[in-house]
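User: Can you recover a sequence for this backbone? Please restate the input before giving your answer.

Assistant: Of course. Working from this structure:
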């Protein structure tokens, strides 16, 4: 074997060393003060965002516009529950689901037939 060509053993050693160096580098990066500061900034920013959104949502829900929107949504919900719209939507959805299921059953049956070996005396229709 040529002295300049790496052996399989040396190649495996280099990959092992590479893995160890990657782990050390990632650990050092994870433990770095910069990463910790960035994490703290992100956490603080998210906390501030959450607090602001909660406050704004509470303020909006108490505003005349928020109250009107809430009332309109409640009226719409009652209207849907107490009208023929709900029955019609349910009927159309049921019809659509039945059609999809029927088509899926046809496809499944067709695929099952294709997967079975043809008998020697039978010919397959295409």
């Amino acid at each position: 074997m040529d002295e300049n060509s790496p052996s399989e053993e040396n190649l495996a050693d280099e990959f092992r060393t590479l893995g160890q160096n990657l782990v050390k580098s990632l650990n050092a990066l994870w433990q770095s003060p910069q990463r910790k500061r960035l994490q703290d900034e992100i956490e603080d920013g998210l906390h501030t965002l959450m607090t602001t959104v909660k406050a704004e949502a509470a303020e909006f829900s108490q505003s005349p516009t928020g109250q009107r929107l809430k009332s309109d949504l409640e009226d719409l919900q009652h209207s849907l529950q107490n009208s023929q719209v709900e029955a019609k939507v349910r009927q159309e959805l049921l019809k659509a689901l039945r059609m999809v299921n029927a088509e899926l059953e046809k496809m499944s049956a067709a695929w099952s037939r294709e997967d079975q070996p043809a008998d020697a005396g039978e010919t397959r229709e295409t």
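That completes the design. The longest helix spans residues 84-115.
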